[in-house]
Protein 1
Amino acid sequence: MSTSTRGSFSSRIGFIAAAAGSAVGLGNIWKFPYEVGNYGGAAFLIIYVLCAFIICMPIMVAEIAMGRNAQLNPFGTYKKLGGKGWAWAGFFGILAGVMILSFYNVVAGWAFGYFLQISFGDLLAQGDYGAYFGRYVANVGDNMVFSLAFMVLTALIVVGGVQKGIERWTKILMPALISIILVLIIYGLTLDNAFKGIEFYLVPDFGKINMEVLYKALSQAFFSLSLGMGALITYGSYFSKKDNIVSSAALVTTADLSIAFLAGMLIFPLVFFQGIAPTEGPGLVFVALPGIFEAMGPILGRVVGGGFFLLLCFAALTSTISLLEVPVAFVTDQFKTGRKKTVWLLAVLIFLIGLPSMLSQGAVSWLTEFVSYGGQTRDFMTVVIDIFSDIALPLGGFLISIFVAYKWKIARFSDELEHGHPKFRGTWEEKFVTIMLSTLSPLIVGFIVLATILERFAGISLF
Ligand code: TRP
């Protein structure tokens, strides 16, 4: 079968690089640390790791297998494998992806601005980095420019197509990011109170585990693995029949977890050294790091700090690419439109959808205090994250497991997995993936999501 018109990855490594590039991003370095900080430190970390390997990895295998089998975008995949009634599940995922990209691009713009202001501006002379961050995210002009620039960059690469665009960059930039993180970890561990940070991060207090911690860890695992909305259905549709899906998914999961883990090892010693509250929230990374770069002196600080945020931008870029690729694949597959035009149209549209999120960080007060639920006032961006990431992704994962187990059926799913892994049947991998998808994943994910929605929006607590 020819896939040449849709594009494909050149090799298994190419796929792994792209999928890991999609997974590793702001989710690991920006979102993961502040969620660990907010939801109990090491207790969160443990639940997170369990969720990623036990619940999410089988769902990742399912997504890739569906996409490779159908050779289509998420909407087309559900429709082809399950009929019209299921196509909405794919569509719902694509919509979630669009909304995720809309706010993600804003945060990527922050990282881009920090790179420029550290390298070429006076960011490292600010002293109070918490206050600086607050002013920074409320500054409409800078935000517009930086996030627009980021969206343009994303679109340029996605126009280039699957192989040339997506694969190439990831393979170079990921090792560079890991290196700079490792150097900073070693530096951070030499600082006073560093081990208080490590203790917070690695010594669990199981008393802190409650429904919200379970839920946040689960949804963060989905977000970080780019799971639950069809990004991996889309990447799976470019994946060769000769390659092993199960081992590739295991590698991607391991790579993603490792980088999130390292981000925590980096941030928490710095947080405790500087006396910052770990519950600082979405500003945590932006507040914890500059002080350290400042201490390195004007030249080294610019180089290391600028380098760090530049690489963070690249990590974010390989993620925004995957987020944009999903609606692009949907529109080009379903409506046979030209790739280039589609990419630019969607990029502009999603940038516009992101404006209220951008303005909800202090610039416009009614967006900043948008609604109140669960006993807290939430800004617009937080509402988008709550709905389209925290709820939609686990829900999407729930639908994928139900779909594969009871509609597409395990037998066909296993047939697909046998391509590239001829001995798949009869292995423990088969048993594990099958049991998870048909019973445990939907039960656990369904329960946690339902309990959280009830608790947060209806005030009903199941415990
Ligand atoms: N996983 C990415 C990160 O951690 C974000 C991301 C990219 C994503 N593609 C996605 C999240 C698809 C959910 C769905 O930064």
Protein 2
Amino acid sequence: MLRGRLEDDRMLTGRGRYVSDWNLAGQAHAYFVRSDRPHARIVGIGKEEALKHPGVVAVISGQDLVDAGLKPIPAAAPFKWKDGSEQRQAQRLSLAHEVVRHVGEPVALIVAGTAAQAQDAAEALVVDYEDLPAVMTAEEAMAPGAPQLHPGAPRNLVLDFVGGDEAATNAAFAKAAKVVKLTAYHSRVVGNPMEPRAAMGSYDPAKDLYYLHATTQGVGPMRGQLSAVLGVPPEKVRVVAEEVGGGFGVRFNAYPEYGALLYAAKKLGRPVKWVGTRSEVFLGDEQARDIHHSGELALDKEGRILGMRFDYLSNMGAYVVFTGAVVNTLGLVNVNCGVYDVQAVHVRGRLVLTNTIPTAAYRGAGRPVASYSLERLVDEAARELGMDPAEFRRRNMIPAAKMPYKLVGGFEYDSGDFEAVMNKALSASEWKSFEERRKKSKTKGRLRGRGMATYIEMTAPGGFAPHDQALINWEKDGSVTLRTASHNHGQGHETTFAQIVSAVLGIPVDRIRLRTSEPDYNLVANPTGGSRTLHGLGSAMHWAAQEIVKNGMSLAAEHLESAVQDIEFEAGDYRIKGTDRKVRIDELARTYPGKLDLDFTGRPKVGATFPNGCHIAEVEIDPETGECEIVSYIACDDVGTIINHQIVEGQMQGGVTQGAGHIFLEQGVYDSSGQLLTGSFMDYAMPRAGLVGGLTVTDHAVPTPTNPLGAKGVGEGGVTGSMPALMNAVMDALRSAGVQHFDMPASPRRLWQALQSRRTKVEHSPVGKVGSH
Ligand code: MCN
């Protein structure tokens, strides 16, 4: 039986090769000078003193890159304006040119013999700025007279889009017996993967090839984006990422630094390496969320949802980045009615520019925001109707019998049994005895709250590459090497892909080795994102292994001197039917080198999947300190067929803890002058392993018919489910003390303040009534 993961030994003994572990002959080192102001015109850059510093070989500015013809990093949303016009332009260059638009924006690249020399020289670089007024929030950025960031985007509005069916939704609201509303703020977070960003650019003049070693989640899209920046065909760019210490969505796009490093490498004729710091993660990595949203439900007299309306106002930061454009459009509308049987849904979204760090994908990529908006609203509706939140959900859920279920606006749920998933979670959470636990907490002076979320999300179908290529080679010792351009940054693909191939070829898992994105292989694959790698690339691996088995039939027949129709394959053996004459597949591969190798470039269609689940949390707040503890957490999820239970459980734990971090601890905060106040771990609190107490992960699998594995994605569901479940629990506890509205983060200070202000209000109001608003 497989214990742990195949990659664990290498990881735990420090043998992983991360970007900073790579060294190329003749390499120089880079330091990026970053803007210390949120909005300013660059009047001039004085390079002379910096160039005189020991070891310095070049100082490169945005003007140099523009002169060399480098283009902006592409970033188009898959949506248009309501009137059909295109998204407004807010383009990001590889180094700021003429204007800086956020603190931390790279302004110049210093290249020197050592990293310390490059950093020292930065002190001598003179950047002459003329400050411009800055704006930090989406609401203020749209106001008349607000500072304008990009000439092509009046009112700082990049896109104002709609989704769903507006007429049907208006009709549903017109006949509603009751309308329930909720507004909320989804705060800004900083991604913070364990490995700070690093990259090394190099250029091979003989082959005319650019190489970028980078901490990336997707060598495929990165390659496309860099080819656009450099103005060369994608075949001229190779992206290498052997080990990547976390991605969480923020390691997806081509960052400005990468174009600048590749330019420098070619110009200087030597590799240029940059290893970022944690401070640069805060100031240079994309951030996420920062979205105000409001939602409304139209209800009939029996508590059935007739229609839904949502409005999102997204702070995109200073530039539109590729994943930011996708997650703030498609990510907010793709599963617009959640698990509920509602056809009248309308969504409006606005993407707004501000002088903050650009926002992009972050685990869940829009779905946690949509799920938070809907699932909090659903809880609010149940409360206003005086109904049990589980009962309200049950009444409105899409029944399993209605699958496949077409959503208004396009997508189709292929499978799912939402009620069965919820029932399992309810029973694991001992739902019915909650009031007893609440009373017990009260005797300890604690406010206990319970919250649930019945979430659903869409995992990516994989439109970034035309197909997922799988190259499978047999080694001389009969082991197998799998090669792909989609790689793992913590998800355990080495293990799960080996399992998939092992199940078909019938050879042991530890005889199969996954290699990703080696410089000499020119492979095509989708990125590791949107929780699609298992069902997308995993399916390709499955088909490829099946094709190898098929290809081996005639070879085995020849080897066994039999007719091919008499050969059968089972558990790694080719056998003449009804006899004990057989040959193992690995033996056959060794005997006929290369004959069973396969470059699988098949393009069978693998669509999106729709993982879903019911998460139930209980929290206890100490009103004296504002401290909130998660005392129990049940996650019951349908991720279809599970390939590796341990990994799936780990993904869920990680996702739930990440969601809890966002709800309770994390927040990226700017002051009014445009400085990021939370620029280090001293002021930005990350979740720790013990944050989610009493976590139980269970599953209720409904395999999907859309891929041969029956698997749905799992990598992000923990975040999508946990954020609304936890906030519903916090709200339940707060309401018992009279607080009616509260936004994340539920930090002790903010919770304490909310409870204090409520107390003050109740005590001082002559007509004050606990529970009134
Ligand atoms: N799996 C399985 N059975 C299933 C579904 C998945 O055994 N039914 C396994 C897969 O084989 C894989 C893992 O679970 O080993 C996650 O698979 P999948 O859901 O396909 O997600 P991806 O591999 O595409 O990973 C991307 C996803 C995303 S989008 C983010 S963000 C994220 C996440 O994964 N970032 C992570 N999990 C992360 N985990 C770590 N440690 N670090 C990150 O940065």
